[in-house]
Amino acid sequence: MTPVVLITGGADGIGWATARRFAAGGHRVAIADLRAEAAEARAAELGPQHMGIGCDVAEEAQVVAAVAAVLARLGRIDVLVNNAGIPDSMAPTLAQETGFFMKLLAIHLQGTFVASREAARAMLAQGGGAIVNLGSLAGNMGLPRRNAYGAAKAGIHSMTRSMAVEWGRGGIRVNAIAPGYVRTKLMAKLEQEGKVDTSAIARRSPLGRLGTPEEMAEAIWFLASPAASYISGVVLNVDGGWQAFGMAGDAPAVE
Ligand code: NDP
Fold first, then answer.
1. Which residues of 87-105 are buried (b: 16+ CB within 10 A; e: fewer)?
2. 126, 130, 135, 139 alpha-carbon torsion, rounded to 10°
3. Which residues have CB under 8 Å from 59's CB, separation 6+?
């Protein structure tokens, strides 16, 4: 039976690279994204056996409907990748408003919760599955002006563990990756707005550069695959060594 993967926010960036990776690995891919046309166009790029669907992960009813649509069309869900997300406003905390704070939590945290709950119903009935969440280094380290984003990602790391222990006996493994800085549209927008300096990021990174969406997709693919059959409840840093580096200044050159 051909396995099925559902990827939220799969029309761009890390989600799209992940969609291509799973399609290449023989999965039927369901791309759920905010813009239905973009999701459908991306699925069509992959081939006729794949599907795209419009879904705002912050809206519970839309997530429930998207999971139901995937089950109706593709018959099963073997892997869920909770990827949809937006960056923080990066306003100073004293200028932050609760409206945007709650919106960001609804997308990242509630979206991950509801999609996992709905997919797990199908996975438990099937006898198992794998969920991979998009965490972040921001969920482990303190980034100024990113209260909502950091809190959401720390919450996703926590849910990764709680769901992993709750559903383990049902054959579901739940893991997350915590990317460092990755070259995507999200990152390009932050750079254009002067909110991140990618040259400085590259200098501070032990591997000397930002990550690529394809490198994130490989880690997601691994955690979802049988090669990771005894790995559950883990948050895997995929950050070029960023979180291992504790000194001041740029990462050192090799001498
Ligand atoms: P992109 O902005 O490149 O892609 C995100 C995709 O998700 C877009 O297609 C976007 O649609 C979609 N999306 C946004 N909001 C929603 C929503 N409410 N419902 C459904 N889909 C939505 O982001 P990245 O690939 O960079 O990020 C993907 C994930 O990785 C996020 O969770 C992010 O927090 C995380 N991450 C990214 C890092 C990075 O450096 N890039 C670092 C650490 C974590 P649209 O284009 O219409 O907005």
1. bbbbeeeeebeeeebeebb
2. 90
3. none
* pTM of the full structure: 0.98
> 4-237: which CATH topology?
Rossmann fold (3.40.50)
Angle at 16 between CA 188 and CA 62, to 5 degrees: 105
Mutate to test the pocket of ligand 1, among 100, 134, 196 (most ligand atoms within 8 A of CB): 134
DSSP character at residue 251: P
Q: Give 174-220 pLDDT, tens digit per residue.
A: 999 999 999 998 889 889 999 899 999 999 999 999 999 999 999 99
> Which residues form the catalytic set?
149
Rounded Cα–Cα distance for residues 241 and 218 (Å)? 17
Chain segment 15-58, per-residue pLDDT in tens: 999 999 999 999 999 999 999 999 999 999 999 999 999 999 99
Report the distance separating Cα 242 and Cα 53, nearest Å: 35
Domain boundaries, the chain: 4-237
Pairing outcome for strands 235-238 and 172-179: parallel
Helix (H, G, I), strand (E, B) or coil at 114: helix
Taking a C-beta distance cutoff of 8 angstroms, is the pair 92, 80 a contact? no
**Which residues are paired to 236 by β-bridges?**
177
Residues 6, 75: Cα–Cα separation, whole Å: 12
The set of protein residues with a Cβ atom below 6 angstroms from ligand 1 is 8-9, 11-15, 33-35, 55-58, 83-86, 107, 134, 136, 179, 181-182, 184-187
